Amino acid sequence: MSANAIEVSLVSIDIKICGIHEAEHAKAAAAHGAAYVGFIFFAKSPRNLTLMEAMRLAPNLPSGPKRVGVFVNADIPFIKARVEALTLDMIQLHGSEKPADVALIKAETGLPVIKALAVSEESDIQKADTYSGIADMILFDAKPPKGAVLPGGNAVSFPWGILKGKNLPYPWLMAGGLTPENAAAAIAASGATALDVSSGVETEPGKKSSELIKAFLTAVKGVKESTKLKTVEIP
Ligand SMILES: O=C(O)c1ccccc1N[C@@H]1O[C@H](COP(=O)(O)O)[C@@H](O)[C@H]1O
Q1: What is the pLDDT of residue 177?
Q2: Among this protein's residues, is 18 annotated catalytic?
Q3: Which residue's CA is the closest to the ligand 1 atom numbered 1?
Q4: What range(s) does the N-(5'phosphoribosyl) anthranilate isomerase (PRAI) domain occupy (predicted)?
Q5: Candidates 3.40.50.150, 3.20.20.100, 2.130.10.10, 3.20.20.70; CATH matching 5-233
Q6: Does the interface predicted TM-score (ipTM) exceed 0.95?
Q7: pLDDT band at 12 (very low <50, low <70, confident <90, very high)
Q8: Mean pLDDT of 73-89
Q9: Residue nearest to atom 16 of ligand 1 (CA)
Q10: What residues have CB less than 8 Å from 205, skipping those under 6 apart?
Q11: Average pLDDT of every residue of the chain
Q12: How far apart are CA 208 and CA 149, in angstroms?
């Protein structure tokens, strides 16, 4: 390589650390390069953030990662109050919202929407087609186990390979049972360029760990560094 050349990484992997309840965990996510931090607004979740808690948390959040509010079949006033409380950048819909619901929530809030879809086999990926051009991103998450109370955040994986080589015509990210130990394998098996994690960076349901957040983001950084590189000559 000549003295005028630089190596440019061709890989960019965005990470969303979801289920943030404490400012210190958002700060750990920001410090180690997370692209998004997520906040759960679903009363049945151990990660649920009340409106009051959101208002207290807001001034202590770091700038940097985009703030994503996660909702499950919520109504517009409920969503709007939380958009305002946390100055959310994006909305994630993790219930049975139809394309028309996604369009309405986008129009009412003016924010981009991530639509989560539950998958367990290759044919489930087609469910995303009806949201294409409406949702800004599709989140492929594992189908919840039978009898689960939560539609997400169950620490369950799906076969990552069902996404490999699909060349999907919309931006997408992947969630479900990801951990610092399996993140690199998940990226290799699926070809994902964005991952979403919650349980895998907790010591128990709802208890985030700054060390595990760092470990997850460091593991992904390792993938980026090992998957370099294009050499670019600087004139
Ligand atoms: O995490 C929750 O409690 C939750 C509740 C309601 C809807 C979505 C929820 N989490 C989402 O689930 C995945 C992460 O799952 P995992 O714990 O890493 O397996 C992620 O998309 C969260 O936003």
Answers
A1: 97
A2: yes
A3: 153
A4: 15-217
A5: 3.20.20.70
A6: yes
A7: confident
A8: 98
A9: 153
A10: 46, 47, 153, 199
A11: 93
A12: 20
By most ligand atoms within 8 Å of CB, the mutation choice from 21, 40, 182, 195 for ligand 1 is 40
Ligand 1 centroid to residue 230 C-alpha, Å? 35
Active site residue 14: no
From the CB of 199, is ligand 1 less than 6 Å away?
A: yes
Q: Evaluate: CB of 13 within 6 angstroms of ligand 1.
A: no
pLDDT tens-digit readout, 133-147? 999 999 999 999 999
For the chain, the residue count is: 235
At 129, list the tokens. 């087609």
Residue 231, SS3? strand
C-beta 35 within 6 A of ligand 1: no
Place of tokens 């953030």: 49
- Residue 222 pLDDT more than 90? no
Task: Supply the DSSP string of 139-202, one letter for each residue.
Answer: EEEEPPPTT-S-SS-S-----GGGGTT---SS-EEEESS--TTTHHHHHHHH--SEEEESGGGE
pLDDT band at 4 (very low <50, low <70, confident <90, very high): confident
Instruction: Ligand 1 pocket test: pick from 94, 113, 209 the residue with the most ligand atoms within 8 Å of its Cβ.
Output: 94
Kindly report the pTM of this predicted structure: 0.92
In this prediction, residue 51 carries a pLDDT of: 98
**pLDDT average, residue stretch 151-170:** 95
- Pair of tokens at residue 115: 């639509």
